[in-house]
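User: I'm putting together a small comparison set for a docking exercise, and I want a reference complex before I start. The sequence is below, and the ligand is iron/sulfur cluster. Could you produce the 3D structure with the ligand included, as structure tokens?
Assistant: Of course. I'll restate your input first, then give the structure tokens for the complex.
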Amino acid sequence: MSKPMKAFDYLLMNKSVSPVLLEKSKKISWNEINTSADPEVIKIRKKIREVRLEIHRMRGFVRFDSINDKILFGYMKPENKIEKLVTDIFARRFQKHIILLGNEKKSWISYYSENFFKRYEESKSLNKMVKDIQSLIKFDSEVDIDKIWQIYYESQYIKERENHRLFYKNMPRKNLKSVGNRLELRLNTKTLDEYL
Amino acid sequence: MASLEKILHLVTQSEYDCIGDEGKVLENINFSKIDVLGQGTKHDICASSSTSRILNQAETLGNPTRSGICHSFAANGRCLSMFKTLFTNYCIHDCKYCQNSTDYKSGKSVYSYTPEELARITISLYKGNYIEGLFLSSGVSPDQDIVTEKMIETLKILKKRYNFGGYIHFKVLPGVSYEYIKQASEMADRLSVNIETPSKEHLSEISSTKNYANDILKRQKYIKNLELKKKLPAGQTTQLVVGACEESDFEIFKRVLKEYNEMMLKRVYYSAFNSVSGTSLENMVSQPTWREHRLYQMDWLYRVYNFSENEIKIAFDDNGFLKNKDPKLSIALNNFESPLDPNDAQYGELLRVPGIGPKSAYKIINYRKKNRIYKRDHLQRLGVRIKNAIPFLKISGGEYTRLERWIECQNQ
Ligand code: SF4
């Protein structure tokens, strides 16, 4: 799991990549990818960047609710095929917690502890999975952390510095939607019509 | 489903119990408190969560990252990666721009967290993946050590009870004792004391209660000495409020040099003065954010591009202010006698060309080991911002005269 990723691994996760580029990526080093001006290598660089950027954004923007103290779940529907990887990243971050990520169609589960690692993929929606788990175990109603976040988020607002263009550059709508983000999207949408 | 049942069983058997009944601490949380104490930090710019700390992840809840992660962005596009809060908004100081100051004319409610509450909110936000960690600051009580003791208790709860592995930025309050700073340094990734102004004369214009040498510089030295013994994973930083006491950018620059060279600071942050109604400076004009932006560019040239003090001085006007123009461009227009050939320029020379940064300079050097650069297109593919760079480069015979270069760059 902690093996360093190769260029090929990243390319494979890209939503659309040609077999030619995939083949070429097997033979080139990271140094070449980072420094070459060859048009094909530039394409590879761009595709890898797309994947990495989306992984980075999912790491930041996915939000978790909890079923109980040890089970965290959240919505995720990325453009690239990074769901397993992102679920694993969170499982490694929150060791000894079940990480469940999913959307309307599929769900991914990872669990990681010092000497144990498990990963599942289910063709069930996130909602269904949450319900299934709740039927199997005792669950607590946790604090409404989304509400706490909303109050904190609004407390950081400085009218004089408002800059929605920059906000959307850093937090693009497509990424907000792919993690089901309701709050930042709502608070930074100028009109209700636009939001709806 | 069998496999899912197995894993659930495993987890419920696990002895790792992070929160337990502690959830109850937040049942009656006062939302106004979160709002007011959050607002007290909104002008603190530092949002970095990158640290060199390495953890055994199996033993902690979460982990820090080398490059940091932004979990959200404010409406101004600024990264929100931390739960940034005051411990209390009660303060004995009279900083003229601050809503916690004793000079503040509108009525205010005073709030404080308990260490348990604050630790629990931090953990909940962290497990919800809203934040990378905690940025803890505070107003100053009559005995600054007492509030610091409570802030440290918060860190202890985070570390000992919750095994918190996330990032911690701890604000050292003016005048706090060495012993407390030492304790904080053992748990935090980053420590900072805000110097606010470039000199003691400037500070006396905005506060009659704070002492520049004793309350601020001496605490910075304490942190520096602690760092010399044991490295702080994310170093020491500070922040200046820009334009609250009519200081020039050059005065700021001179202080910043001292901060980097004498205090060994990792970063200096700049926050453009924003007038807050009810404060003594409510009628003073707020500073444009471009001023802050140009100071960051100047800082970047010094810290990352290794420009010398004398080179940077060129960017200031006769009154010691930076223009609303990229300082790198102003310096280049002044310094470039003749254009540079990207095929044989040194790394440091390439860095002085507008539109070429450390990454593209590195790519150019790598590329020309096997190839020659003779077209703009080559540079573009190496990440150079052509429009900015071309007036300063000699490429396929074409080169600008000094006058042409000056005209071409007028609108940049
Ligand atoms: S020390 Fe000054 S800036 Fe800090 S909270 Fe007190 S009054 Fe505000």
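Chain A touches chain B through 71 residues (CB under 8 Å). The longest strand of chain A covers residues 107-113.
User: Thanks, that's exactly what I needed.
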